[in-house]
Each structure stands twice: as structure tokens, then as C-alpha cells.
Design a protein that fits this description.
The chain is of the alpha/beta class and 393 residues long. The protein has 14 helices and 17 strands. Helix content is 36%, strand content 16%. It has a six-stranded parallel beta sheet with strand order 5-6-4-1-7-8. Strands 11-10-9-15-16-17 form a six-stranded parallel beta sheet, with helices on both faces. It has a three-stranded antiparallel beta sheet with strand order 13-12-14. The protein binds adenosine-5'-diphosphate (ADP) and magnesium ion (MG).
Length: 393
């Protein structure tokens, strides 16, 4: 990795500002899913064992620059304390004299958690003075929050102007795994894209066309491609204003030598409700008030064939409306095929990862990215602000 990581610097006796992604789901004042907290434990333990003291900082939810009692970090501090087996002190401020005093008093091996960064609107505004205050009490900045690395906020980018900045272990893992696919594609390589909209993923689609041997498309975005071919699709969701983009992407695929594979059959329903009436249709036969909500069994077979022959798989976005069973079936079956295959697989996207979690398949994926937007932008080839500011080796 071209960027410095905590393993490359001496942290003994140093006070470290550690930016983490503790944006966890809460349920009646308790952490409902602590996966994001557990993901940072290796970095925390590594820093503590090597004699640093830690000031942790994260955002939680969308308080939009105001203190929102339900989004205070207390439940997170409590859960982290349980996982570490020692209490984690939470401060009620993000910056200011109380924070300075508390950090001053810390001894090697101590750990505290700041209040929700986004209670202060200067965080998302990447305010220079706010960043300076965040950095003031510490010696080093460590960014382990890959999921927000595509945002230039005070705690992800701004602070690096004032203290040396390096990557945490989770950030390092993300950078290595995601660039591995871009830099050392193993062939045949299959890219899979799903989710609702083409518009969210145009650039990553173009990048995958350059990279992969085939690009399999499912989800709502497949409808837009089918519509661009002139198929009417009943009441299916698609993006009218992206038909031209979809056509030009199909043309690009012919030139790039990457096969673009669209669904040959779709699961359609009239009502998007659990276990509502549904049937399988070929795209050109969908009419009336039917809408396509999942890929059909023939498409699953085709996708599975490509997957079973692949040496590398990258996948973003679910292939159907997985939140409403049985329309999770396409995503489930394709994920199962990927889990069986020998290929190295990298998966990203909030909704797809949630789908794989609910299917219990996360253990069988090579790497699961913790980023949504950040993963997409990384794959697009953009330089993410939160990574750019880290020191080069
Ligand atoms: P990710 O978070 O994995 O990148 P997206 O946010 O792009 O995925 O898309 C996820 C959403 O796409 C889900 O809410 C899902 O219901 C929706 N979706 C998938 N297939 C369809 C479809 N055929 N019609 C409408 N919405 C769909
Ligand atoms: Mg999403």
C-alpha cells in the first residue's frame, strides 16, 4: 500500500485521534448491530498495545449540525467497553476546553470517545478552525473510517493539515482489497451490478467494462437497459432520462470486449408486498400493471454459469427488491453460487451487504467492503479525500 499505516509509525506515548465509523443501528438506546464497532477492534488493540492513548471520533446518524439526544454516542461507548473488557469514557463535547483537559489527563493505554461529530455543523462543512481544534490535543491522526473517506469533512480530511495522518488497519485492508481487483484482475473476471438506479453507478459501470470479462446486470437498473433496447416492461421501475446513457454503455461494451449480460427473464408482480402474486416472464412479454422486481430462474442460471467459471468476482447492489421476500430469491441464489465458487470475491454496497448478512453468506465472501458510496468512488478510480490526505510511504 502506498500510504503509511499505523504499523509504519511509532505511537508509544502518543495521543492518537482515531476516526472510526461507529454509525451503527440503534434500538431503544442500545446498539442493535455492533459489526462496525468490532471491525475497528484490531486497530484499537494494536494502538493500545503499542502504548498509545486513544481519542475516538465518529458520526452517528444524520443530526445535521445540531445536538440530537437520540444520536448521542453513549450506547456506542458502552458497547465498545463491553467488547474491550474495560470502560470507555464518553465526553459530551467534540472539541473545546473540556476535551483538551480530558485528553491532557490521559495515560498510555487510555481510551475515550468524543460526542457525535455531526452535532457540529462545522464537521461536514470541513471548517478549518474546527479541524484545528480537533487536532489540537493529539499527536497523530489515524483514519480507519473507510465508509466516509469519500467525504472531505473536518474529521476525515481537514485534520490532516495539523497533525501527521496515517491509515488504520481496516482502512488499509479496504485499500488493499479494493485496489487488488483493479490492479490484478484474475481472469475470467465477472462484475455484477444491481440496485435500483443506473444513475448512481454509471462511472463504476464504465470502469468495470474496461476491467472485467463480463458485466452481469440485475435489479432496477437492468430495466433501464432493457427499456433502452425498446422493451416496454409494463409498470416496471426504470429511468427514462438514462435511456441514452444505457444505450451508449451497451455500445461501449461491444468495443471494450466485455460482455454485458442482461436478464432474459424477470419475476413480476402487481403489488410489492411480501408473498404477493408473482410470475416469471420474458422482458418483452411484461405488460399492463405488472412490474419486474427480481431476476428470473433462467437469468439466475446464466449468471451462475459465469460465476462458476470465474477467477475473480466483484459485486455491488442487490439483483432484486430483496427487502420484500420472495423477491430476494435472485440475490440469494446468485450469492449462494458465489459462495460455492473458488473465485476471489469482493462485495460492496450497503444494501447488498445487508442482503448477504440476512442470508448468512458473509463468511463465504473473500472481502466485504464497509463502504457504500466510498467503495463505488474507489472503484471508479477517484482519489478519495480521506485517503488522499494520508502520508505517503
Ligand atoms: P447498494 O446499497 O448495495 O449499492 P443500491 O442502493 O444501489 O444498492 O440499491 C438497492 C435498492 O435497489 C434496494 O432498495 C432494492 O429494493 C432496489 N431494487 C433492486 N431491484 C429493483 C427493481 N427491480 N425495481 C426496483 N427497485 C429495485
Ligand atoms: Mg444503497
Amino acid at each position: 500500500m502506498p500510504k503509511k499505516c499505523i504499523e509504519d509509525v511509532d505511537v508509544k506515548g502518543k495521543k492518537v485521534l482515531l476516526r472510526v465509523d461507529f454509525n451503527v443501528p440503534l434500538d431503544e438506546g442500545r446498539v442493535r448491530d455492533d459489526a462496525r464497532i468490532r471491525a475497528v477492534l484490531p486497530t484499537i488493540t494494536c494502538l493500545l498495545e503499542r502504548g498509545a492513548s486513544l481519542v475516538l471520533a465518529s458520526h452517528l446518524g444524520r443530526p445535521r449540525g445540531k445536538a440530537v439526544p437520540e444520536l448521542m454516542m453513549d450506547p456506542v461507548a458502552e458497547r465498545l467497553g463491553e467488547l474491550l473488557g474495560k470502560p470507555v469514557k464518553k465526553l459530551d463535547q467534540v472539541v473545546g476546553p473540556e476535551v483538551a483537559k480530558a485528553v491532557e489527563k490521559m495515560k498510555d493505554g487510555d481510551i475515550l470517545l468524543l460526542e457525535n461529530l455531526r452535532f457540529d455543523k462545522r464537521e461536514e462543512g470541513n471548517d478549518r478552525e474546527f479541524a484545528r481544534q480537533l487536532a489540537a490535543p493529539v499527536d497523530i491522526f489515524v483514519n480507519d473510517a473507510f465508509g466516509t473517506a469519500h467525504r472531505a469533512h473536518a474529521s476525515t480530511a481537514g485534520v490532516a493539515e495539523f497533525v501527521p495522518a496515517v491509515a488504520g488497519l481496516l482502512m488499509k485492508k479496504e485499500i488493499e482489497a479494493l485496489s487488488h481487483c483493479l490492479e490484478n484482475p484474475r481472469r475470467p473476471m465477472t462484475a455484477i451490478l444491481g440496485g435500483a438506479k443506473v444513475s448512481d453507478k454509471i462511472n463504476v459501470m464504465r470502469r468495470f467494462l474496461q476491467l472485467a470479462d463480463q458485466l452481469l446486470i440485475g435489479g432496477g437498473m437492468a430495466n433501464t437497459f432493457l427499456a433502452a433496447r425498446g422493451v416496454s416492461l409494463g409498470e416496471s421501475f426504470y429511468e427514462q432520462d438514462l435511456l441514452e446513457t444505457a444505450s451508449s454503455i451497451m455500445n461501449e461494451s461491444e468495443q471494450s470486449g466485455c460482455r454485458l449480460v442482461l436478464p432474459v427473464d424477470l419475476v413480476v408482480t402487481r403489488k410489492l408486498e411480501p408473498d404477493s402474486d408473482s410470475k416469471v416472464m420474458e422482458p418483452q412479454d411484461i405488460d399492463g400493471d405488472w412490474k419486474a422486481v427480481d431476476i428470473g430462474p433462467e437469468t439466475v442460471k446464466t449468471f451462475s454459469r459465469y460465476i462458476s467459471r470465474s477467477a475473480m468476482i466483484v459485486w455491488n447492489g442487490p439483483l432484486g427488491v430483496f427487502e420484500v421476500p420472495p423477491f430476494d430469491q435472485g440475490t440469494r441464489l446468485v450469492a449462494g453460487e458465489m459462495a460455492k465458487s473458488e473465485a476471489y470475491s469482493v462485495v460492496g454496497g450497503g444494501d447488498l451487504v445487508a442482503a448477504l448478512e440476512s442470508l448468512g453468506l458473509t463468511g463465504q465472501v473473500g472481502f466485504i467492503s464497509t463502504g457504500g458510496g466510498a467503495t463505488l468512488e474507489f472503484w471508479e478510480g477517484k482519489e478519495l479525500p480521506g485517503i488522499k490526505v494520508l502520508q505517503d510511504k
